Structure formats: structure tokens, C-alpha cells
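We treat protein structure as text, and this decision shapes the records that our systems exchange. Such a record has a labelled line for the sequence and another for the C-alpha cells. The record that follows is passed on verbatim for readers who wish to inspect the format:
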Amino acid sequence: MAEDMGSFRVDIELENPARPGERRTISSVLVDTGAELSWVPREVLTALGIQPHTTWRFRQADGSILERPVGGAFVHVAGRKTTDDVVFGEPGDLILLGSRTMEGLNFLVTKQLVDAGPAPAAVAA
């Protein structure tokens, strides 16, 4: 994708929460604020021993519905780490960093990842 289309890519690392220490790096992952979950190739998650715990249904731009398994992973980006559900992507699926993962990392998206500062919290009166 052309840079002038407002898209950008980052490198991410994935880790199995049940087996911390071993990570897999995926380079040039598309940052997609329109995607709820992050999408990762199935073989990466399987190699880390991550197991699906549920199946989600997704509506594609053309209106068709597809199903993919989802499992939990540690996601590392730009020196930060969060735990999130990630989609077990199939061949032909895009590899994406989704909005929920970015929120968990507390990043704002401004064509680069920027520290969002302290997270808001309610204060007791």
C-alpha cells in the first residue's frame, strides 16, 4: 500500500502466555484501526503452542461472513506488551494489528505509534 493512503506498518512479537520467553517476530504488520482484533498467521500461533479458545465470525467488505479461531497471546510492539485475543489467520488473510490490541498497548494512532499518556480513570468523590 502506498504511504499516502494513510496506512503504516510495524514489527510485532508474539508470545504464548502459558510459555513465556519464546517469541516470534512478524515484520511489516499493517496497522488497521478498522479491525477489532489482530490477525496473525495460524502457523505462527501454532508454533508458539497457542490454542484457540473460541471462534469469531467476521463480516468482510463485500458482505460475506467468514469464521476464524481466536486465541490469547502476549503482543509486543515498540517496547510495550499487552495480552489480547488474536485471530488464527489463513493463507490469503491480511496480517493486521487491530484496534483492541493498540488500545491494550495504550497507543494513539497518528501514522506512527505514540504514547497516549495515563489512562483515564474514575475518581471517587
Confidence is low (pLDDT under 50) at residues 1-5. The first helix runs from residue 42 to 47. The CA atoms of residues 9 and 30 lie 4 Å apart. Strands lie at 9-15, 23-32, 38-41, 54-59, 65-77, 80-89, 96-98, 107-109, 113-115.
